[in-house]
Write a structure and sequence with these properties.
Helix 2 runs antiparallel to helix 3. Helix content is about 90%, strand content about 0%. The chain has one domain. The model has no long low-confidence stretch (mean pLDDT about 90). The chain has about 150 residues and is mostly helical.
């Protein structure tokens, strides 16, 4: 394959490569949040063992929220990783299609749409987790402060 035929394929592969980079940054943020949730859960579990009868319901509610947050982040990480994987498959498909002169436009479009759908899913999980973290914060604020936040 002459270089002049390869250049358009290289140009087409830049978009998915940038997408992988962006998804990687989102995944970095999510894994940091995931680690924070896990660390906080361990501390709250230790606090639960030492808590008085009056403190236990509040700590248990915090642990329920942390558990939900961990599941949301895990789902977001899975969607984001799958999005990056699909973008990588799109790049490979572009090169294989160009090298073998295959008409794989429909495959590329399908990979791209599924890749973006997974990215959207990842971002929705991220937003849901951030909202759940605010719910945990509001449990710590006295009732007067909650009315101000609403």
């Amino acid at each position: 394959m002459p270089l002049s035929d390869l250049i358009p394929t290289l140009q087409l592969s830049i978009g998915p490569a940038i997408l992988i980079s962006g998804v990687g940054l989102i995944l970095l943020s999510m894994t940091n949040r995931f680690g924070r949730v896990i660390d906080r859960s361990r501390l709250m579990t230790r606090d639960l063992r030492e808590a008085s009868h009056e403190e236990r319901p509040r700590i248990l509610e915090q642990l329920r929220i942390l558990s939900r947050r961990a599941r949301q982040i895990r789902a977001g990480i899975a969607c984001g990783a799958f999005s990056a994987l699909l973008a990588a498959l799109m790049i490979v498909s572009l090169f294989v299609g160009a090298l073998m002169r295959l008409e794989i436009g429909a495959v590329i479009v399908g990979l791209f749409l599924f890749c973006v759908a997974m990215l959207i899913g990842s971002l929705l999980c991220f937003i849901a987790e951030i909202n759940a973290s605010l719910k945990a914060l509001w449990l710590e604020i006295p009732a007067e402060g909650q009315r101000d936040q609403a």
